[in-house]
Write a structure and sequence with these properties.
The structure holds 2 protein chains of 2 kinds. By secondary structure, chain A is mainly α. Helix content of chain A is 73%, strand content 0%. The longest helix of chain A has 27 residues. Classes of the chains: A mainly alpha, B mainly alpha.
Chain lengths: 190, 109
């Protein structure tokens, strides 16, 4: 683990609340990038990510016990997700969903799911695994995903691939499922 | 009445688009009762959401990193200060027990 992060974590174990408060600054500086990128996976909105993360850090300040024996960044991310982020993520849309049709349980699974096989792989590792997997896709499937990742709408992708929006949605769905199989396989191999 | 409910593959792509564009609430609002039930019972949808999140993270998460962390740190500090103030102002455990016991006493009399 990074020395800066290790020192920042040490500061959090102080019993005095004011000392812990002072220790939050180096901790936030050391972890902000990692945490916000991770949250972005679930929310896709930087403003909401910051709001959730603000509460997550305050929760960590209040109850830092879970972070006492952290030895690696991966373990830190996993612990923070399980004990701090997940609760906050569940709250994000819960109130707004009250009058909608999706059950609160489904919403919980959608916004703050259990940790899947791939959820804890770091961004850089994922990038590598994804690039490998994309290389094994058919040209049309790969192009559809690439265009999606460039921000294109289904209609724009359909225009580019000269087909209908319905066909593109089916193609994306099947490709995503195919990618899941491939990524799980790569992840197990790693 | 025509069936306007979206199929599961359309729902997944709409969810992925909403996630990418940062408008999950709009997606949630767009769901009909049948679509919500379809989502709840489809394992394919749940499998695919994991990859949608990963694609979203790999493709777009970098833009969430604010250039000025100091500003964010001051927000966190303000939140901590407010919690600290609240906890100093009212020790929640004590106050609650006192009022409960007072209520109990009143009930007895």
């Amino acid at each position: 683990m990074d020395k800066r992060l290790r020192n920042a974590l040490k500061g959090l174990s102080a019993a005095d609340a004011e000392r812990r408060r002072r220790a939050m600054e180096p901790f936030v500086r050391a972890t902000f990038g990692m945490f916000i990128k991770y949250l972005y996976r679930y929310l896709g909105n930087e403003v909401e990510c910051e709001d959730v993360l603000e509460d997550v850090y305050a929760d960590i300040w209040e109850k830092p016990e879970r972070l006492c024996n952290i030895t690696s960044e991966k373990q830190l991310l996993k612990t923070v997700y399980l004990y701090y982020m997940r609760n906050r993520l569940r709250e994000v849309y819960r109130r707004r969903n009250r009058n909608l049709y999706l059950s609160q349980n489904s919403l919980k699974d959608l916004i703050a799911p259990e940790i899947g096989a791939l959820e804890m792989v770091s961004s850089s590792e994922l990038q590598d695994i994804l690039t490998q997997a994309m290389g094994k896709l058919k040209a049309r499937e790969r192009r559809a995903i690439e265009l999606w990742m460039e921000g294109a709408s289904s209609r724009a992708i359909a225009n580019e691939l000269k087909t209908t929006v319905g066909a593109i949605k089916m193609l994306e769905f099947r490709t995503i499922l195919k990618l899941r199989k491939m990524l799980c396989y790569y992840n197990r191999e790693e | 009445m025509s069936d306007t409910n979206r199929e599961i593959h359309e729902l997944l792509v709409d969810y992925a688009d909403a996630l990418r564009d940062g408008c999950i609430p709009a997606f949630l609002k767009s769901l009909t009762r049948e679509e919500a039930e379809r989502i709840a019972s489809s394992w394919e949808f749940w499998d695919a959401t994991e990859i949608s999140r990963i694609l979203n993270g790999v493709g777009f998460a970098d833009k969430a990193v604010a250039p000025n962390v100091s500003l964010f740190i001051s927000r966190v500090d303000a939140e901590i200060a407010s919690r600290l103030k609240k906890s100093k102002a009212s020790p929640p455990g004590k106050r609650r027990t006192r009022t409960r016991s007072a209520a109990k006493r009143e009930n007895r009399t």
